[in-house]
Design brief:
Strand content: 5-15%
CATH topology of the largest domain: DNA Cyclobutane Dipyrimidine Photolyase, subunit A, domain 3
Largest sheet: 5 strands, parallel
Oligomer: single chain
Number of helices: 20
CATH class of the largest domain: Mainly Alpha
CATH architecture of the largest domain: Orthogonal Bundle
Number of strands: 5
Shape: globular
Distance between the termini: 58 Å
Helix content: 40-55%
Radius of gyration: 24 Å
Low-confidence stretches: none
Mean pLDDT: 95
Length: 459
DNA sequence: TAGCTCGTTGGACAA
DNA sequence: TTTGTCCAACGAGCT
């Protein structure tokens, strides 16, 4: 009997690890281990999504005649115990890329036959390198090499099994109960449904609509990709198909832009693989000695969406409430914390990891280092998002702001992104007195911008 | 090797 | 209102 050890690949369609296990021997034991590190984490929304996903996967497996065994504890201990108690030959698992996962798997592989199969991206994080074998540090050349990289067998997607052998009756823990957000039902069928709905229509307008905060222009597939409810190569194949079906240049550009986002995902996976130290420090050595501001009250205002800048606050409140925000909202809020408040980007990174339903170490760290200008890529330090301009550009009527900041619901569009400019009479008229019903800006944009420019110039 | 080009996502300001 | 220019400089990556 073999074990399919499930970690971040909660799917049956195009699951290489599961497929390999079945190829090797008909009897496969699907296993998930509730790692104590996972249970200790404070990322409740992400946990709830995962637990709900495990419930669905268990049902799917049962429907096919198999089951899902849940164990709780240290993975190495649990695996070794299973191997001792049952006639297990091999363990198949999808290769994970975080430093913790790599240490864990390395240690286990020394004790038993652990067969790691790639599947977290279309290409493995170590595969796309420069000619001299060194990793790329800049996205554009990476993406060129990614596209040119031979696809091997990745173009053929593995179908889900239709029937499975029953597994022996062995003890299994309960999956913890934690209510999952109704916004992201956690199962493979839903993931595929959402992918199809995006590819049928919205992808063709993606190059423009992806920036809009007041429209659903993005695919919002990130939680599904993070937990492997969608296979990256299936997603990529389908996107290529959409590209082929495009009727005009705009539609093609939409597909290309979205495919680039998939490549970004893998670019940051590659960065994390080659530079795991990025998780604890700035990638650029020059930025490791920055003295960030200690401003706990401002940090709390940021977390709670009380900075006085509507676009920042709307996003932070949406994040706290739903666990998901638009990529542009992530950039605006991150830029505000780092550039306007001069608070260490790592504080923000940690808060995002705790709050996000799709929180992914590679993508989150890559995104924060990009915004802070401390990452591999040379981002001009003078690139500082203006929260008013960004709001006016990407939420022109203030629809998004009004949705998440009810205090501002009646404010006219002209002032929606800068309510402090409203004359007192109008503030009273619209029932939002600034400094009373809604905070005044905690920093002045012009002053904060100058301060950030000065500080970054010194580094 | 040397030289050249380029770098996801911006903003301010002048004309 | 729109458009162009500047804001630094450097190192990655390519030819």
């Amino acid at each position: 009997m073999n074990i399919w050890w499930i970690r971040r690949d909660l799917r049956l369609t195009d699951n290489q690890a599961f497929h390999e296990a079945l190829k090797y021997g008909e009897k496969v034991l699907p296993l998930f281990i509730l790692d104590k590190h996972l249970l200790k984490s404070h990322a409740e929304k992400r946990q709830a999504f995962l637990f709900s996903g495990l419930h669905s996967l268990k049902q799917d497996l049962q429907r096919l005649g198999s089951d899902l065994i849940i164990r709780k504890g240290d993975p190495e201990t649990e695996i070794l115990r299973l191997v001792e108690e049952y006639p297990i030959q091999k363990i198949f698992a999808e290769e994970d890329i975080t430093p913790y996962a790599r240490r864990r798997d390395h240690s286990i592989a020394q004790r038993i036959d652990l067969h790691l199969v790639h599947g977290i991206g279309v290409h493995p994080p170590y595969a796309v390198t420069r000619m001299d074998g060194k990793p790329y540090n800049v996205f554009t050349p990476y993406s060129r090499a990614w596209k040119a990289f031979p696809f091997l067998d990745t173009l053929s997607v593995l179908p889900a099994p239709v029937v499975l052998s029953p597994i022996p009756n062995l003890p299994s823990e309960e999956i913890p109960e934690l209510p999952n957000s109704s916004l992201f039902p956690a199962n493979e069928q839903e993931a595929i449904r959402r992918l199809n709905s995006f590819l049928d229509e919205r992808i063709f307008a993606y190059s423009d609509s992806r920036n809009r905060l007041d429209e659903e222009g993005t695919s919002a597939l990130s939680p599904y990709l993070h937990f492997g409810m969608l296979s990256p190569r299936l997603v990529y194949n389908e996107a290529i198909q959409a590209w082929k079906n495009s009727h005009d240049a705009i539609a093609r550009a939409g597909c290309e832009t979205w495919i680039n986002e998939l490549i970004w995902r893998e670019f940051y996976q590659s960065i994390l693989w080659h530079f795991p130290e990025a998780l604890s420090q700035s990638l650029k050595a020059a930025f490791r000695n920055i003295v960030w501001r200690y401003a706990p009250e401002e940090f709390i205002a940021w977390q709670e969406g009380n900075t006085g800048y509507p676009i920042v606050d709307a996003a932070m409140r949406q994040l706290a409430s739903t666990g998901w925000i638009h990529n542009r909202a992530r950039m605006i809020t991150a830029s505000f914390l780092v550039k306007h408040l001069l608070i260490n980007w790592q504080e923000g990174e940690r808060w995002f990891m705790r709050s996000l339903i799709d929180g992914d170490l590679a993508a989150n760290n890559g995104g924060w280092q990009w915004v802070a200008g401390t990452g591999t890529d040379a981002v001009p330090y003078f690139r500082i998002f203006n929260p008013v301009t960004q709001g006016e550009k990407f939420d022109p009527q203030g629809k998004y702001v009004r949705k998440w900041i009810p205090e501002l619901a009646n404010v006219p569009a002209k002032f929606i992104h800068k309510p402090w400019e409203m004359p007192t009479a109008e503030q009273q008229k619209y029932h939002v007195v600034i400094g009373q019903d809604y905070p005044a800006p905690i920093v002045d944009h012009r002053i904060a911008r100058e301060r950030a420019l000065q500080m970054y110039k010194k580094e």
